[in-house]
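To the team - DP6 complex, inputs and output below.
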Amino acid sequence: HTFTCTLSSGTNIACIKYWGKKSVALNTPINSSVSVTLDQKDLKTVTTVVASKSFEKNRLWLNGTEEDVTNSKRFNACVDGVRRMGGERRGEGKEVLVEKGGWGDYKVHVSSMNTFPTAAGLASSAAGYSALVKCLAEVFCASESYPGELSTIARQGSGSACRSLQGGFVAWRMGSKADGSDSMAEQVCNENHWPEMRAVILVISDLKKDTSSTEGMGTSVDTSELLGFRAREGGVVDRRMELIEKAYKERDFEAFGKVTMQDSNQFHATCLDTYPPIFYMNDTSKSVIKIVHAYNAWKGRVAAAYTFDAGPNAVIYCLDDVVDEVLALMLQYYPGRRLDGRYVRDGEAWGRA
Ligand code: DP6
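Output:
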């Protein structure tokens, strides 16, 4: 038998950033983090998984080009992890086709397409690995033995991916167990909680970033004292996690926006504090920061909040009553760049379509 599934997953943009690994082998973080999962209108990964006993090996095509996954620890951790959770699969006449735990001989062929620039710091790995894990779970009829178990598998693909299995506002709790089994995602608010939330994506550069997150966080953990200060128990991140979860629950944009900007700034400060330093933002990114603060000063409140991941591209969170104003401001700033094209993208929070 051959089994197949196609589905998609949205990316997520962190408000409190994950930066630094406690265990590289388990891909567990040195601090908890939290993000908004975007809807699947613009930024998403579409993945097809085909499983068969007759395949010789696991294979992966990324945007149509085959990647060798024989030695990919991340890819194989996801395939093996979900396969181990595999359940009974029945045919249309209810006959048992594969017994629970009977997936050992199956190999997979995977095709994955991104609708946005891969590795430009737009969290493509988050959408990619969460789509992969969701798709594998369907194909292998996997069921969780505790809530969040699948997110512990997605985490091994890419840390941020564990936050994309659910919509809305999703926290990744760092956990404390030595085997990483409690380092998993938890939905703080679902996608219907704050439907006015919008994310405006400014693609400043779609070139591949020059320091991958994995490599960058390794150097930061080794060399940045500021990162230790930020991530320590009861430190900056723990305080901000509490504050932002409360703000999101109460739909308090002022508090949500301020801490989102502060945490983006502190993450980039730890990059500068890394030795040798890492620069993800460029001059255009910095101008966006200035414009947003000028805009907020003019409004007399926090009406828009920027955040930047491991690349120069900006994400601006705002509520939908000001989204046209924010877009107009950015278009004014980027004369000649079009709204419908590659430069400015307007993604809605997931679930609003
Ligand atoms: C700056 O999840 O890409 O976007 O676990 O090594 O795959 P790996 O890292 P990744 O790092 C994301 C870093 C970030 C912040 C965040 O999304 O929380």
